Amino acid sequence: MSREPDATAEERAEPLDAPAHDEYAAEAEERWGGTHAWAESARRTSTYTKEDWQRHEAEAAALSARLADAMHADVPADGDLAMDLAEEHRAHLSRWFYDCTYDIHRGLADLYVSAPRFTATFDRTSPGLAAYLRSAILANATRHG
Fold first, then answer.
1. Digits of tens for pLDDT over the chain (145 positions)?
2. Burial, 137: exposed, middle or buried (Cβ in 10 Å; 0-12, 13-18, 19+)?
3. Rounded to whole angstroms, how far apart are CA atoms 131 and 127?
4. Cβ–Cβ under 8 Å, residues 137 and 105
5. Do residues 47 and 2 touch, judged by C-beta distance below 8 A?
6. Which of 33, 42, 47, 124 has its CA 20 to 30 A from that of 79?
7. CB within 8 Å of 139: residues ≥ 6 apart
8. How far is CA 72 from the centre of its chain?
9. Can you give the three-state secondary structure of the chain, one letter per residue?
10. Other Cβ atoms closer than 10 A to 135
C-alpha cells in the first residue's frame, strides 16, 4: 500500500460510493470515533491513494463473490470453507484498516444484519449474503476461541 497520498479525499472516496461516503464517515466516527480501531483506521486510510482504494474494493468484491458462490453451493456457514472465507474477511479488515479481533468481527457481523445499509451492501452481491457472512463469522470466531 502506498504511503504517499496522491489523491484528494474525494478521489479516495470515489470507489467507495462517493456521494454517500461523507455521510457514512460521519456515522462511523460517531459510533467508533474514540476507539483505538478508529484512530488506526484513520491513520492508515489517510495515506491511501486512489489505486489503493481500488485494490481494496477489488479484493472485497472478489471475497464477496466467493462467499456468494459458497452460499449458492449450499456450503454450510459453519463449514470449513465458509469459516475460512470469514477468516479471510477478518484478515482483509486487519490488513486495510485495523486489527480486527474476533470480538470486533462478531460485532461487525451483527451490524451487517442489523443495519439496513450494511445488509444492502452485502446483499447487492447476492440476496442473503449478509446473513450468511454473519453466520460464518460467528462460527469462525467460535472456532478460534
1. 444 444 444 443 444 444 344 555 666 667 666 788 888 888 898 899 999 999 999 999 999 999 999 999 999 999 999 999 999 999 999 999 999 999 999 999 999 999 998 899 999 999 999 999 999 999 999 999 8
2. buried
3. 9
4. yes
5. yes
6. 124
7. 77, 78, 82, 83, 86
8. 21
9. CCCCCCCCHHHHHHHHCHHHHHHHHHHHHHHHCCCHHHHHHHHHHCCCCHHHHHHHHHHHHHHHHHHHHHHHCCCCCCCHHHHHHHHHHHHHHHHHCCCCCHHHHHHHHHHHHHCHHHHHHHHCCCCCHHHHHHHHHHHHHHHCC
10. 19
C-alpha cell at position 62: 472478489
Take residue 72 and report the three cell numbers written for it.
449458492
For the stretch 92-119, what's the b/e string if a residue is b when 16 or more beta carbons lie within 10 angstroms of its beta carbon?
bbeebbbebebebbbebbeebbeeeebb
Q: What is the pLDDT of residue 76?
A: 98
Cell of 43: 491513520
The C-alpha atoms of residue 144 and residue 50 are separated, in whole angstroms, by 35
